[in-house]
Design a protein that fits this description.
6-stranded parallel β-sheet, Rossmann fold, 32% helix, alpha/beta, single chain
Length: 182
């Protein structure tokens, strides 16, 4: 039995250039995600998809019933791969994600997706706090520029700060290439 799973967090249309939250480097992120997902499928590593959806049809982003909440076609779940729908930043909050992992005997999660500073962050920290061994593939995650108190923080710096924080105490952070190396 494989004790590792790949968690694909929120690679949805809302993050494409046509969405309301276009992410920096999303094309490269998705290309790496496809490689990781393909590798998992070939090697019988479970792949679980997480999809964010707002609870209100009046929400400005991730509006239910719209194309924005759909998982991007490049990383579409295969038959039998679960899709966990979440309404909060943390994929474990009020979902059956933990039960899905437990039912498969998962001890280690490899996390890819969006956004590095929000849903990936919450998922990484929650998984580590629950005792999972966590690996984050930094080049299979993406984010965007942030603004705080009149200061714009470029996406590359936001992403680097998140990856540094994960590596400091929550996860092994590596590249897709290094993860896939024999």
């Amino acid at each position: 039995m494989n004790h590792r799973a790949v968690l694909v967090i929120d690679l949805q249309n809302e993050y494409l250039p046509t969405g309301k939250l276009p992410l920096t480097g999303i094309a490269a992120t998705v290309a790496n995600a496809v490689t990781v997902i393909d590798h998992a499928r070939v090697n019988d590593i479970p792949v679980l998809h997480v999809r964010h959806e707002s609870t209100s049809s009046e929400a400005p982003i991730f509006k239910p019933g719209t194309d924005a909440v759909a998982i991007q076609s490049a990383v579409m779940p295969a038959s039998g791969e679960p899709v966990i729908v979440k309404n909060f930043v943390n994929a474990f909050r009020d979902t059956d994600l933990k039960q899905q992992l437990e039912s498969r005997g998962i001890k280690e999660v490899v996390i890819i997706g969006a956004m590095s500073h929000m849903c990936v962050d919450a998922g990484v920290r929650a998984a580590a706090d629950m005792g999972y061994t966590v690996t984050v593939l930094h080049d299979a995650c993406a984010t965007l520029d942030l603004e705080f108190n009149g200061v714009t923080v470029p996406a590359a710096q936001v992403h680097a700060a998140m990856m540094a924080a994960f590596a400091f105490g929550y996860a092994t952070v590596t590249s897709t290439q290094a993860y896939l190396a024999p």
